[in-house]
Write a structure and sequence with these properties.
Layout lengths: L3 E5 L1 H5 L4 H9 L6 H16 L5 H12 L3 H12 L4 H4 L2 H6 L4 E8 H8 L9 E4 L1 E3 L5 E4 L10 H9 L4 E6 L2 H8 L5 E5 L6 H4 L4 E3 L2 H7 L14 E5 L4 H10 L2 E5 L4 H6 E6 L7 H5 L6 E4 L3 H4 L2 H6 L3 E4 L4 H14 L20 E8 L4 H11 L4 E8 L3 E8 L5 H8 L4 E6 L2
Parallel strand pairs: 1-2, 1-6, 2-3, 6-7, 7-8, 9-10, 9-11, 11-12, 12-13
Antiparallel strand pairs: 4-5, 14-16, 14-17, 15-16
Helix pairs in contact: 2-3, 2-4, 2-5, 3-4, 5-8, 9-10, 13-18
Length: about 425
Amino acid sequence: MSKKYYIIDFDSTFTQVEALDELARISLQNHPDKEAIYKKIEDLTNQAMEGKLSFRESLAGRVKLLEANKEHLKLLVKHLKKLVSPSFARNKNFFKDHTDDVLIVSGGFKEFITPVVLPYHIRKENIYANTFTFDSEGRINGYDEANPLSFEGGKVKLLKELQLQGEIHGIGDGYSDFQLKEFGMIRKFYAFTENISRKSVVEKADHVTPSLDEFLYINNLPSAISYPKNRIHCVVAGNVAEDAVKLMKKEGFNVKVTERLDDKLLSKAGMLLLGDKMELSAAQLQQAPKLKVIGYIGNGKKYLPLEACTAAGVIVFDNLKKQASVAKRMIRFINNGDSFKSSNFPHLQLPKVEAVHRCIHIHSNVPGVMAKVNQVFADHQINIVSQYLMTNEQIGYVIADIRADYKPQLLKALREVPGTISFRVLY
């Protein structure tokens, strides 16, 4: 099997922002024409990222406008460390496990990239970027113009020099990242859209990855979460406040807003957020085999088949006045398994945990099911870190936190326990 390498961009990929744009906001904060200069810098950035301006022209123009020094760079690094893309931050273990395989390749600058990525187990020698030049008073006065990354097509030039032997995958948001695939330097290009989606780049990608979780998932690489949120369809129907919808989108779910529910939408839905007086029948519920949670803006008891939802393992949260509260409870259930204040499930408030996978097992509340669940763990020699169980008249709701070094056969066995309604792994 050939060695695999992962070439990862920095700006708007590893971090949520374009670092030079942020540096401008720091260095020019007291400049009388700062807004006009910010706009010029952002325009130069976007033109290069979309392939409308050569990278070298864009870089030279931006550096000239910065008026920055070493003290500004220190402030920038502190700022960027708080703006690492969420899916990168939660998958720190991936970088630890692939420290020899990950290369940061960026048209940005080592002065701010290196201190941001080093805590993620990126090797210093695997960081490829430009470098600033400074005058005698520590002001940025240019950059190393001999660095291949300062040229148009710089990433292609660099990889030609590196001559990496193996299967290479590239992840980034800009045109310079796509060029690696265009010139045959990498096997696949993944357009990273967690922070920004550039149409000209997305159209050329082998795969669009809205998060690092998606990239890890499709490549069968260990991830901090078991299933990418962008693959969970959240259908919003009826009169739902925009704030609640924004919460779902910000969390990374695949949100579809509609006026009415149809079988096609229900067949894909993992989450439903319904406005007041929207009805969901038991027959419609049967058309939603992937459904895990319903949020209802109003009194769900009047308009939802609550007993059928419980029997199907679908949790319900409702609240007439606090729409954002309903959305937040849905998110907490998906992320952490919390069932507190649900309308039909036993109430569990759960702590967040690190370095384990959390399993949710929902089963009919009949004698012996819990014993069979624990027997499965014992048969597979699983050490349970923590376990929580609550029941009501219909169902048992059990959470088990286990170490991540289990085999797939464990999950199959848990799904096959007699009495199981649903089972999933959170992370």
